Amino acid sequence: MANAIAPIDPVAIVAAANADRRIDLRAAKFAKMAEGPFAFLRGGADLYFARLDKTNHQDAPLGWMSGDLHLENFGVYRAADGSTPFDINDFDQCALLPASVEMVRFASSAIVAGDGKSIARAAATKALIVYLETLANGDANGWGVGSAGKLVKVFQADQQGEDQTKWLKNRKEKAKDRRVFSASKSNRDITARERAELKTAAKSLAAGRFDAKPEAWFEFRDAKFRATGLGSLGVRHYAILVRGDGDPDANCILDLKAARAAVGSSLWTQPAFANPAARVATIQSACQASPPHVGTVTMGGDDFVVRQAFAQDEKISIRENIASWADFTDALCDMARIAACSHLRAAGQHGAAPAADFVRWAGKADVAAIIELAARAADDNDKDYAVFKAAAAAKDPRLFGGLPKP
Q1: What CA–CA distance (Å, rounded) separates 228 from 237?
Q2: Which residue spans within 129-242 are E strands per DSSP?
Q3: What's the pLDDT tens digit per position in 308-357?
Q4: CA–CA separation, 367 vs 370, rounded Å?
Q5: First vs last C-alpha separation in the chain
Q6: DSSP 195
Q7: Residues 225 and 268 reside in one and the same domain
Q8: Contact at 8 Å (CB) between 370 and 186?
Q9: 33 and 40 in contact (C-beta within 8 Å)?
Q10: Domain of 201, in residue numbers
Q11: Which of 20, 91, 325, 341 has its CB surrounded by the most CB atoms within 10 Å?
């Protein structure tokens, strides 16, 4: 396969991609990315697409992809029907892309997570074969936790046991007869202007009957800036504490995250949506078997994806939960089945190719060529990481210019 993309400057690309982040969290993101090649990959989707050669993906059908399918963008969440599915749970970068673009990114993340070992490449190869076999079956419901490997079953069982009331109490403290957010590393203070905007946003959600809740449910109590994750760390992301089912302990938390144009969206023609948040909400609902209730709101010039936060919402930490290479391979295969079902589920919608095109491609796709692209992407990631780590250690002004001194 071709690789005609010219050399790039990874530091310049990372700096440009994060220029609009909250300034203190931009520094925090760079520090996390410097911790290792896998953390760098999680925060560096822009680099993957900067090097992407479209000629390598001409045969794959266009479909709705998460846009950043790595191993830690899967997890458990509370669905609108009350279930706690294990699925892809990050659609910030969703775009209409060739399926092979998504799977090269996925396989490269497996190789990087496995420190480039041959056994990691073998596991990624097996997972890709499972992905194509699942596509070939043409059944968008061809995966279920009942047929999952040990890691997914254990992870889902752990999250199902989370108690919502206890979870909420751990995130609040008493202020007179009400609750406010307690101080934590994941919650940052907001400005008076942001607070006013968030109060207005809560009223807008009440007027729009988000999740069919009564208006009083949305009565504002407190708000914070959320400092969570890695890829989107520093993007406008808020938590609003609302009355919910009653003060002081039956409150609820609304999660509002600003949506942006997807990193890979400029490489292929995209359909029109009302705004970026509408794109994320629409495609998430199309791709997940049991989606949460997702809404949108416009605030301060940005469009936000809105959902209710639950104790069960948790992304998988692949390195913290894997005990053996067999578990690693099983987890990759589960994720590959989930990805195939997601791609089939959204097939034929909003400009995506029909399911029949995915089935046909699955029968002729070149596994070795896709894995070779993934191995090359993993190697590029490791080289970029070395350059970035040195720049971060040297306090390169492209990364830290204008940041406050510690």
Answers
A1: 9
A2: 172-175, 178-181, 187-188, 220-226, 237-242
A3: 998 878 787 777 777 789 989 999 999 999 999 999 999 999 999 999 99
A4: 5
A5: 46
A6: H
A7: yes
A8: no
A9: yes
A10: 165-313
A11: 91
Beta strands 314-315 and 74-76 are: antiparallel
What Å distances lie between residue 2 and 58, 106, 144, 373, CA to CA? 11, 19, 37, 9
Average pLDDT, the chain: 91
Under DSSP, is residue 308 helix (H, G, I), strand (E, B) or coil?
strand
Report pLDDT for 158. Answer: 67
**What's 184's DSSP letter?**
B
| Residue 89 scores a pLDDT above 50 | yes
Residues 278-316 as b or e (16 or more Cβ within 10 Å = b): bbbbbbbbbbbbebbbbbbbebeebbbbbbbbbbbbbbb
Same domain (yes/no): 299, 174: yes
Which tops the pLDDT comparison, 175 or 29? 29
Question: Is residue 107 within 8 Å of residue 71, measured between CB atoms?
Answer: no
- pLDDT range class, residue 176, cuts 50, 70, 90: confident
270 and 132 in one domain?
A: no
Place of tokens 């790595």: 70
Q: Which amino acid is at 98?
A: P
Q: Do 226 and 345 belong together in one domain?
A: no
Lowest-confidence segment of 87-91, 175-179, 208-212 by average pLDDT = 175-179
Q: What is the pLDDT of residue 310?
A: 87
368 & 268 share domain: no
In a domain, 289, yes or no: yes
